[in-house]
Structures are given as C-alpha cells and as structure tokens.
Amino acid sequence: MKFDHEKALTRAEVLKALKARWEFEKRTERVPVGEACGRVLAQDCHAAYDLPRHRVSSFDGIAVRAADFAQGVPDTCEWVRGVHFTQADTGDDFPDEFDTIIAAEDVGYDEAGRLILNSALEVKVGNAIKRAGATMGKGELLYEAGTLLGPEALAILAAGGWAEVPVVARLKVAYLPTGTELVPVGTVPERGQNVQTNSLMLGAYFAQWGAEMIAYDIVADDRAALSIAIDRALAEADVVLVNGGSSRGSEDFNSELLQERASWFSHGVKAVPGRPIGLAVIEGKLAINVPGPMIAAYLAADWLVRGLVCHYYGQPMPQRVKVPAVLDAPLGARPGFEHLARLVAHDVGGVLHAAPVPNSATLAENIRSVNAFLAVPAGVRYEAGDVADIELLGTKAR
Ligand SMILES: Nc1nc2c(c(=O)[nH]1)N[C@H]1C(S)=C(S)[C@@H](COP(=O)(O)OP(=O)(O)OC[C@H]3O[C@@H](n4cnc5c(N)ncnc54)[C@H](O)[C@@H]3O)O[C@H]1N2
Ligand code: MOO
C-alpha cells in the first residue's frame, strides 16, 4: 500500500490520535492476592480490621505490671511465672493484667530458675508495646484504585483482609502474524521461508507490561483469509496487531484491509525504523499493522503498544534511566523523521561511549549487543564525538 511520507504523523501525534478515539471498556476481575503482582487495582481497598487486633509485645521479653516497679526494681526471687510476669515475645499477645514489657536482654534466671532483673531498669507503662491498629487501622485506605501493585502491596492487602483482590482485567492484544513465507517455530525454513518469531518476543513483552496476547496462527498473504482473520481478531480483542504486509509489497494487503473497516486511519509514522505502520480505529477498537521486520516490530511495540497499555491501565509510561554518552558515529534520520537509534554503549576508561551496531552485523549480533537507545528528534543530527543523553535498556553497559 502506498503512503505519503508528508501525511505521516509523529509518534506523539499517533499516540494522541489513537488514545482520543479508543473506546475501551475497563473490565474488573478478582484474583487471588498472591497472583496480583503487576496488576492494577480496580477499586480502593481499605483494611477490614485493626491489626494487630489487640496490643502486642514489640520485643522478645516478659510482660510485667509497671506498678510493681513504682519504687524501683522489686525483689523478684519469689515471682511466679504466669502470676507476676509472663513470657511475651515479639508480636505476642499477653493477658490484660500486664501493661509493659521488659526486653529479654534485661532478664535472667538463677540456677533455681528464679527471675533476676537488671537492677538499673526503669520500667514504665507501655514499654515495647505495639498498639492495636499500629500495623493498619480498621478502615484505613491501603491502596487506591489505579495503583499498580508490587510485591509489598500483596502483603499489605492480604494483611488487611483481601484474600482476593479486585483488579483491572488484562488488556487483550490479538497478534496476527501474516506472510506466506512464514513457518511456525520448530519448522526448518525452506528456501523463501522465514520462521515466525515476532510473536515470541512481543508476547513476552506484553506479559511484562501486563497485557495478554492472543496469538493467532500464521495467515498467508491472501486477501480473503486475512480479511476473515482480522474480523475474528477484532471480535476477540481490545487491540489487534496485524504483523507484516505493512509496506509496498505486491502482497501487502493488511493496511488496506484495516483502512476499509476504519472510522479513522493513518499510514506511516515519522520515525525510523518502523515507518510503514498502519493505524486504524475500527468501531472504537484499535488495529495496528505492525511492520514485519523484527526491529521495526520491537520498536512499534515499545513506543506504541506499550504507550497504549499504559493508557488503558491509567499508568504513566515508564521512563528509562538516561545517562550522557559520547557518540562514536553520526546519528540522525532523513529530514522530517525521528531516528530511533538502538545503540551499543560501553565504558571507555570511565567514560560511556555509544554507537549503532555496524550494518555488517547479523540481526542476531545486533539484538545481542544493543543495550541503549536514543530517539534523535527530527531535524537533529549528531556527529561523532557529540555527547547525548542515551537511555539504558536495562542490560549492563559493556
Ligand atoms: N519498496 C519499498 N520496500 C520497503 C519499504 C519501502 O518504503 N519501499 N519499506 C521497508 C520498511 S522500512 C519496512 S519496516 C518493511 C515493512 O515490511 P512489511 O511490514 O511489509 O513486512 P513483510 O514484507 O511482510 O516482512 C518483512 C520481513 O519481516 C519478516 N517477518 C514478517 N513477520 C514476521 C514475524 N511474525 N516473525 C518473524 N519475521 C517476520 C518477513 O519474513 C520479512 O523477512 O518493508 C521494507 N520494504
Ligand atoms: O522500518 Mo523498516 O526497515 O525501517 O524496519
């Protein structure tokens, strides 16, 4: 499908246009609290009760009556466990007749098992006692709707009585690999064939971002078959990704098929790699024709699908750590286009340097070595030796 570079939108314009037109329904489901890490809370969650339910000791030690210490440390030779004092270790409840704790470090016993206390002790009511509700008070707001739950949140919610947690249902992203040349993983490709692998990479990313991928079987470059598959995917998912057939090949039908169904359609983004992307809004759902090549598919997922996932969950797009690096090669795209530069960053005598992978490298080598990213704005060109703030992709700089 032909497209006009001048009409292509910037990445920011694409995100804005799609978010403005996307009509998604945020479904809610309840999941066991142990499975809620990484999920987004669908409603405010309050503590169901005070915890601890009643005051407890906050030290390993013994519970005593402070009144017995009004004149200083008493003679405890005749003290009877359970009558004059009782064991009360950290987190332990103890009978209400006792009102203070003496830490184990200040407590001893003689050969006859009689209690001996440090004579310098000052004992007041309420020493080393954790009040009722100190962990959480009944009705306390534990987490607000919209919170992205992390490991600690699971523990706090569970402590507050939430054995099951109401969360936003996972965004469903249908992934449709298309191309007559594609064969499934496990098949040795013949001449003219290629292994369908983007679904593995994208599915793993979507899982990290909290979206569920519905992976479809490979669809050949056949208009009728593609049309049926696209309609099926649109019925099943919130977002449909049609991978491949996005450009100008004689069998690149996908963007056309999306445009036919769309209330809004745009082809192409002013960013490379990944420029020939098809963007459609179909009955309030989003359908994206993601370019086939692995790096273009990765980039589209990273800036666009991730942005949409964050929008669905009401979360900000996570920002990567940026650090200054000396560029060892020029960077910048043709006029009007952003350059989404994937870089290899490495330390040279305490100074971070970065450069793109040489064109001569295999794709495998490229993927293995890239550990940084720089979005060079349209109209900007960096020369070798310039310093730029690069984003670290989370792998160790080498
Ligand atoms: N004459 C032109 N040719 C191309 C242009 C252009 O402007 N003029 N743009 C190039 C750019 S940039 C890109 S990006 C690609 C876009 O390609 P398509 O989206 O049409 O993808 P296909 O042609 O179907 O496949 C390309 C390549 O990727 C492999 N592929 C596809 N899907 C998968 C998958 N699921 N897993 C693994 N690999 C996949 C496919 O086998 C091909 O090798 O067009 C350029 N051409
Ligand atoms: O978008 Mo393409 O070749 O630039 O991957």
Low-pLDDT segments, ≥5 res: none
Arithmetic mean of pLDDT: 95
Relative strand content? 25-35%
Determine and state the CATH class of the largest domain. Answer: Alpha Beta
Q: From the 3D coordinates, which CATH architecture of the largest domain would you assign?
A: 3-Layer(aba) Sandwich
Number of domains: 4
Biggest beta sheet attributes? 6 strands, mixed
- Termini separation comes to 41 Å
**What proportion of the residues is helical, as a percent range?**
10-25%
CATH topology heading of the largest domain: Molybdenum Cofactor Biosythetic Enzyme, Chain A
Shape, per Cα inertia axes: elongated
Radius of gyration: 31 Å
Number of strands: 25
Number of DSSP helical runs: 7
Structural class: alpha/beta
> So, the CATH homologous superfamily of the largest domain?
MoaB/Mog-like domain
